[in-house]
Amino acid sequence: MKLLKGVVGAAVLAIPMMMSQGAVAADGKGIYGSKCAGCHGPTGMGTVGPRLAGQQEKYLVEQFKLIRDGKRTSGKSGMMKGAVASVSDDDIKAIAGYLSAL
Ligand code: HEC
User: Fold this and answer.
1) CA torsion 40→43→46→50, rounded to 10°?
2) Would you put residue 46 in left (φ > 0), alpha (ψ -120 to 50) or beta?
3) Fewer Cβ neighbours under 10 Å: the N or C end of the chain?
4) Distance between CA atoms of residues 30 and 59, nearest Å
5) What is the pLDDT of residues 33-54, one digit of tens each?
6) Is the minimum distance from the CB of 36 to ligand 1 under 6 angstroms?
7) How far is ligand 1, taken at its centre, from the CA of residue 23, in Å?
């Protein structure tokens, strides 16, 4: 049972790693749609959370990490923190690339 868990765990880790190293970059639009759109709106124009569409990529990545890692706690940041704990650094790069181009 322990061995099986290890194998499953390794696969869960390996699949996103293989995907991020492949020719196809992480799907920023797809991740945004499933993990962010509920609060930032379907096209990033903001609803509960602020507008993200058209913001600078670097700014989005930095602010995102600050909130995810608990270093930015202003306003309603706490509301977002729990929802985005599983979003990786590669994921946020892809998401920010998508959003900044909107
Ligand atoms: C549960 C709702 C919620 C979810 C889900 C959520 N956010 Fe947020 N987000 C917020 C709120 C609310 C704020 C404003 C925080 C504040 O008051 O300072 C925010 C702020 C931000 C900011 C800072 C914007 C700025 O102008 O400073 C970024 C970047 C951001 N979110 C990105 C994301 C990304 C990317 C995702 C998906 C991976 C996501 N958020 C998911 C609610 C959410």
Assistant:
1) 70
2) left
3) N
4) 20
5) 999 999 999 999 999 999 999 9
6) yes
7) 29
